[in-house]
């Protein structure tokens, strides 16, 4: 599973999504659409190469500035100081910030895979309210252990086969959720790209953490998929080419539910927290219905996701020391927390 939530590109491509998309669609039937392709914002950003635009800019620049060597002063703005703290984060592209979030999130984490049937992720400088250091641990599912209990594997595969009966009513959800289910969380929270762009960015950062973590566990346990065990499973999706345990969708959605519940709090009223939990559970179950996961993949993935959500919030909500600028995750949390919700924080 991909770890990105939404797509983060450079600032140029961000700009091209709006102006370039509308410009191109307006003139898509005639020559205006072709002009947008070779001379619009996307071409200027380098999203694709346009010799026509490059030469047009060259000749225009020469006429506007007549900047022949030695004849024009550089016209420097000497009032500018260094970019500091929040000003720098505001200026960087989302793609750059995402790399900073990822670095903060994995710095100091340690993955212990020394035991065949257990793996632990710990560290990162996070201390829980009870004073203990943060850690999360998963155990290999019983059906995949050496000398597993009699009938454990049969029962695990039979459960997948039985849940296949739900494919008819769940098929639209299953197919839509092949991509990370952005729209489903947006539906519950009424997320708007204009009003909640930093909430989307917060979600992407949390999912980046879950992707880093879940792939370590998947590789360590290397559990075969249900379709590897029985030709009767016949999944409705191509089986992902990595281990089955734990489930990435379940981990990612549990992370999102935990982080978003804390972010939104009571500002939307109603039972939003309960809906987010139910949504995460349903998306996870749909992966079993589709035939690509066991139920144990989902339950343990959800546990891992909740633990990662605790870790993420500890990083993002850590107090900013007096007189110091916020770190990237602290800055992002503040921006998302201050976006336009329906009521007071």
Give short descriptive properties of this protein:
345 residues, mainly alpha, Vanadium-containing Chloroperoxidase, domain 1, three-stranded antiparallel sheet, 3 strands, 6% strand, disordered N terminus
Summarize the topology.
Layout: H1 11-26, H2 31-39, H3 41-45, H4 51-65, H5 85-91, H6 94-106, E1 109-112, E2 118-127, E3 133-139, H7 152-163, H8 167-176, H9 182-189, H10 197-221, H11 226-229, H12 248-264, H13 272-289, H14 295-316, H15 328-337
Antiparallel strand pairs: 1-2, 2-3
Helix pairs in contact: 1-2, 6-10, 8-13, 9-13, 10-12, 10-14, 10-15, 12-13, 12-14, 13-14
Give the number of domains: 2
The total count of helices amounts to 15
Mean pLDDT: 87
Can you tell me the CATH superfamily of the largest domain? Phosphatidic acid phosphatase type 2/haloperoxidase
Q: N-to-C SSE series?
A: HHHHHHEEEHHHHHHHHH
Strand order of the largest sheet: 1-2-3
CATH architectural category of the largest domain: Up-down Bundle
Strand content: 5-15%
Measured between the Cα atoms of the first and last residue, the distance is 34 Å
Uncertain segments = 1-29
The CATH class label of the largest domain is Mainly Alpha
Describe the largest sheet. 3 strands, antiparallel
> How many runs of DSSP E, i.e. beta strands?
3
SS-based class? mainly alpha
Helical proportion? 55-70%
Oligomeric organization of the protein chains: single chain
> Outline, from the CA principal axes?
globular
